[in-house]
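Standup notes
- DV: blocked on the single-chain target, sequence here:
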Amino acid sequence: AGSIAFAKWVGKQDLDEVCEGLIAEHGLMVVQGKYFLTANTHFRVGLGRINFPQALRVFCEAVSALG
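- DV (later): unblocked, structure below
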């Protein structure tokens, strides 16, 4: 198992669209909170084990670009 985070989404964009875009465009392992029996206000992101620094950088850049 690798590092994961379960974060609250506070952006204005639809969380389903954001997660699908992060997967499709950046190869990030992101799953909406609704699949973990929570409100769709949170998301789970897997950041890997071996490539944690690179995955975290990609995640930060991708989320920052959302505005």
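- Follow-up: The first strand starts at residue 3 and ends at 8.
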